[in-house]
Write a structure and sequence with these properties.
The protein is mainly beta and 210 residues long. The protein is 13% helix and 44% strand. The protein folds into 2 domains: 72 residues, no CATH class; 119 residues, Immunoglobulin-like (Sandwich), CATH 2.60.40.
């Protein structure tokens, strides 16, 4: 510290060396954060509205990430749009065609990993469960660009039939048994199986997202 002729104490100028550059560096860093002018930022938003608002509020760069609080999914900015990128397993309630779910125990979930998706499901039939024709899930919560999977149908633990899981639309999958020769291209309807209470089937599917 130094002292003036009048006895006032003032900081030693050595303590202030480089202050102007430090302030400029701090201002530049703050501007980068506020304007989004550097890549690989990570944001936290409440929902889809908050996610969409980032594009108009920041200068985004490909690779920037944003986590939505309402679904826990991390999205990645591609340079033109947000793409679902990473998540933990998320449960959802499927909507079925040609499957009467009365009495059935059903668990289904999906997740994202590095921009791809994975689905898994398990169904145990009850006394009122039945198939009729081509069985599909019509509300897959993933916009699928491609995908394929396999499964297995267990006839009360005594017989097994491999299943094919294929994409029937951007948000729809078809679950079908292979024929007796296990030929992938010769597909029958799941309804061709004679179901019984206690039967079960499981499936998994992976693919890319839009």
């Amino acid at each position: 510290m130094g002292t003036t002729d009048s006895g006032y104490i003032f900081p030693d100028p050595g303590y202030l060396s480089g202050w102007r550059q430090a302030v400029e560096d701090l201002a530049d860093s703050a501007e980068d954060v506020l304007t989004g002018s550097h890549a690989f930022q990570t944001f936290r938003v409440a929902d889809s509205s908050g996610l969409n608002a980032l594009e108009s509020s920041f200068t985004l760069a490909a690779g920037d990430l944003a986590r939505r609080g309402d679904n826990g999914i991390i999205y990645r900015w591609t340079g033109s749009a947000w793409k679902a990128w990473e998540s933990e397993w998320i449960d959802w309630v499927p909507t079925w065609t040609n499957l009467v779910t009365t009495g059935a125990t059903i668990t289904t979930a999906y997740k994202y990993g590095s921009g791809e998706f994975e689905l898994r499901g398990s169904v145990t039939l009850g006394s009122g469960t039945s198939f009729s024709g081509d069985v599909t899930i019509d509300n897959v919560p993933v916009s699928m660009a491609s995908g394929f999977g396999l499964g297995e149908y267990t006839d009360v633990g005594t017989a097994y039939n491999p299943l094919i899981v294929s994409r029937a639309g951007n948000n729809q999958i078809r679950i079908s048994p292979m024929n007796s020769a296990s030929t992938l291209l010769a597909r029958a309807n799941l309804g061709d199986i004679t179901e019984a209470s206690g039967d079960s089937f499981v499936f998994r599917m992976r693919g890319s997202v839009n």
